[in-house]
Structure formats: C-alpha cells, structure tokens
Amino acid sequence: MQNILNAWFVQGMIKATTDAWLKGWDERNGGNLTLRLDAHDLAPYEADFHAVPRYIALSQPMPLLANTAFIVTGSGKFFRNVQLDPTANLGVVKVDSDGAGYHILWGLTDEAVPTSELPSHFLSHCSRIQATGGKDRVIMHCHATNLIALTYVLENDTDIITRYLWEGSTECLVVFPDGVGILPWMVPGTDEIGAATAHEMTKHSLVLWPFHGVFGSGPTLDEAFGLIDTAEKSAEVLVKVISMGGMKQTISRDELIALGKRFGVTPRASALEIKK
C-alpha cells in the first residue's frame, strides 16, 4: 500500500518549505504555500484520508474551484517544522461541489486548520487558472528579506519596481517579463487583500505586499520558488548597490529590449519606458 507521506506532492512541499526556511524567508509561522492537485494525484492515497473529514466554510464562495483539491500549509505552523512532522503541518483539502467550503481530507492533525491566507491563495489560484489556462498550480507567500527592504526605499509603483529588478539581475526580465505587481499596505488575512492580490495576479506572476512580503505563482513548486528566488537575488544586489551610493551604470532600455528578443519574451512596455 502506498503511503501519502511518500507522494510527490508531500515531498515537494517538504522541500519547498525547508528551502524557504533555509533562505530566511519564513521566520516563525511566516509564509504559506498551496499546490493545486488533480484527482489522479490523490487516488492512490485515499486509504490515508481521515475517516470523517472536517468541513470548513469559506468566507466567500469559490465556484471556479469546486471539487478541486489542494495541499496547503497550516495556520500558525512553522515552515522549519514541516520536514519534521508533515502530517501536523500540512493538509490536503478539497473544495466542495458548490465552492462554499472545503473538507480536510488528510493532515492538519489536532484540529489544526489551513493558513489564514487561504482566501488570498484561493482567489489568486482563480486568477492564475484564468490567466494561464490552468497551467499555474502553485501560490507561494513568503517574507523575502531584500524584496521587503526595497519597498521602504523605492516608490511603490509596478513599473518602477519592475524596472529596478530587471536591471538588478540580467535574468529577471526573462523570468518575469510581465513585471511585478504591488499593492498598497493592507491588513493581511482579509478578503480585501485577497481580492487585491488576485486582481494583480491576473497581470503578474509576482506580487509584492509592501513592508510584508511577496506572492509568487507558477506551474510547479520549483517554478514558483525559482521565480521568487530570482527576484530576491536581484533585490539583494539592488540593496547593496543603493547602499554603495546608487547605480553608476546599468542595463539600458535598448539592452533590455534586445534581451527580450533573444529569449522570446515581451517585456512590460510601460516598465521599459520608465525614466529613472
């Protein structure tokens, strides 16, 4: 009999949460991660499901996600502990047939519940399903140190943040040509910030919450993690450059255009036109 602890999606969540902890992005219970699953992903492991799955109503219905399953991190759980006890810190949930709530099929033992950011995740999943034709399956939220730092010193504007990050590391334009969305500061864990994030996720795979953290999406755990990792590396370079007195030279607009042509991506036009 197959054990769900050996499933690719449980092992993937263990690796992603451990890697994020080691990066310093997820102190204490900071950060959350969700991965959309298909029926065939779960079919071999139904024997491991709870005999009586708990039901939790959603604060707003999610009909687009009806009958869809996810593996999620738990509320108040530490990323550093997922590797030690996946069953306590992760859970598999399935949205019901009308999208009004979900059942906890596995994990989240001792009455634990999914991350408080689950509404934000679910709304962003809806946006990315529509934006990518169902390709994107992962939403990751973490407290990437240097990206947070930049929101204190750069104007919190999508095009300005995007342009700086493109210039901070050559690969950024290739990895996120659609740029980086950014919100005003908002109270986390609310439907309001979830809706605002989801709106930005219709246009961007990466969204910054100023003075707080970042949301990233992707088709796989590796892709979502790598997206944030790439932006964070650029932010680290920029933090050092700004600390040394600012740029004396940088990648030019024409060079950014040439980079996009070489790798077959279309950079966000308004970010190319920014005069810094």
TrEMBL record:
Its EC number is 4.1.2.19. Pathway: Carbohydrate degradation; L-rhamnose degradation; glycerone phosphate from L-rhamnose: step 3/3. SUPFAM superfamilies: AraD/HMP-PK domain-like. GO terms for molecular function: rhamnulose-1-phosphate aldolase activity. SMART domains: Aldolase_II (SM01007). Its cofactor is Zn(2+). Keywords: Cytoplasm, Lyase, Metal-binding, Rhamnose metabolism, Zinc. It is found in: Cytoplasm. Binds 1 zinc ion per subunit. Zn(2+) binds at H141, H143, H212. This is Rhamnulose-1-phosphate aldolase.
